[in-house]
Amino acid sequence: MPASISAIxxxxxxxxxxxxxxxxxxxxxxxxxxxxxxxxxxxAGKTTTIRILLDLLRPxxxxxxxxxxxxxxxxxxxxxxxxxxxxxFGFYGDMSGSATLEFLARLCKQKIDSHYxxxxxxxxxxxxxxxxxxxxxxxxxxxxxLGLIQAFQSDPALLILDEPTEGLDPLMQESFxxxxxxxxxxxxxxFMSSHVLSEVERVCDRIAVIRQGEIVxxxxxxxxxxxxxxKVRVEFSEDCDFRSRxxxxxxEFIDSNLRTWNLRxxxxxxxxxxxxxxxxxxxxxxxxxxxxxxxxxxxxxxGE
Amino acid sequence: MKAGLALIVNSLKRVRFLVLxxxxxxxxxxxxxxxxxxxxxxxxGFDDLYSLVPDFFRQLxxxxxxxxxxxxxxxxxxxxxxxxxxxxxxxVIALATEPAAEIEKGFMDLVLSRPLARGWVIMRSLAVVxxxxxxxxxxxxLGTWIGQRWLSPEGAVGPxxxxxRSLALNLGVLILCWAGVAVVISSFSRRxxxxxxxxxxxxxxxxxxxxxxxxxxxAEKVAWLSPFRYYNPLDIVTGLPVHxxxxxxxxxxxxxxxxxxxxxxxxxxx
Lengths: 304, 270
What we know:
A: six-stranded mixed beta sheet, B: mainly alpha
């Protein structure tokens, strides 16, 4: 697949349910080989967009393409290139885990590499004995792991994961992050929705935030983090009255007293360091910005 | 094609216990009916039974009643007994509403995220319904054959193989017709309970409509809407051939039902 072709391309995509607009005029490009985070609050339109990619929902207008194939007119080709973990899904309780994986594998065009599947089972700590049990006996976490195995087992060019770590314990989350990283190293593209911003910050190269069906930001994770202010805490060995100080632009005091300054700094710290050079500084702490700090702003802002 | 077959095989595996249980039960019921008929025949009770029934009822039923009050008639009752018809209609409703059940459960997302044409979901229902109906009817016919082969009293004239085949054929086509109705409703629905209840209610209403229309002439005007109108087992028991027109009508409803479901399921949001 030529690298110039986007892994996912959405062009003015809209989906309406009567008067309700679930997705509005969405345009987005996801590059091949990147891990892309699709963020938004509940009901923002993440799952609707994902389901349109897999032709489970039909768009009201606009179009979606996966690796150069139209998601509606060439949906079978698209689905043969993608592995999908739905946000909410159900298995048949009377089937065993292994029978379910076998059945879903038979629905795929390409042959499943059994060694890779065994590897996945081991990495996600899903022993054969558990796979032979009926799914009705599985816990929520086990069902989630089975969902992950079925999505990864064909080693697809594109992984579409809707809230992938929901219901996974921290150890399994680690294993999942490793699987993602390996998939990325093999050149696979990952498109995942998530509520967990720390997770997105850790695994994603780029993100898009969707609010009320509209994209409000698309950016590299590092770029987004730069938009956030760093918190700086300065302790002095002598009293320093913060009220008499004029701070450079992009700097503001929060919760300060004569011996301790707490500041919020947007941009570089150079000017602050120069200022502090004249003062009796005892200690300095810089807290790196988190994705949450920026994204909460996008989540909360109303659309106007 | 391979994926479609996998879908059919998986569904058949999952329903095999239900289908075989019902088939064995109905097979047993046929054997039981043969036992009952043999018992009445041995005690020469058919004449007594005939005389116990009021005159007006005998007149209402016509020659069918005479045919029914015989060894052969009792053996055939299983092919139009309300419990048998009810359980068969119930079975095909359960089988044909599988698409709605899988959407409700969320399993359909996993199935249709594979490179599978949506039409296979409906074709799968058709295959499962067809195979299950044939299997259950074959087991019923086996029960009848067992009863005739080993339980029939000396001198008793049992139903001919042709008569049993005719009853099974007409009953089978009627059952498939209900599968056609159920699958259309299922293709519009997101919940099996809704699709099943709607089809069940429709079946009950049309059954009563057909029943009422036989005794109350004003209902005759709309009785043609009932699929049960096109299954006349008492006529067949008296020796009349199966109306080809009835089979065509029921068969057409089945085909149109599955075709509509195919179109609707391909267009709908999952």
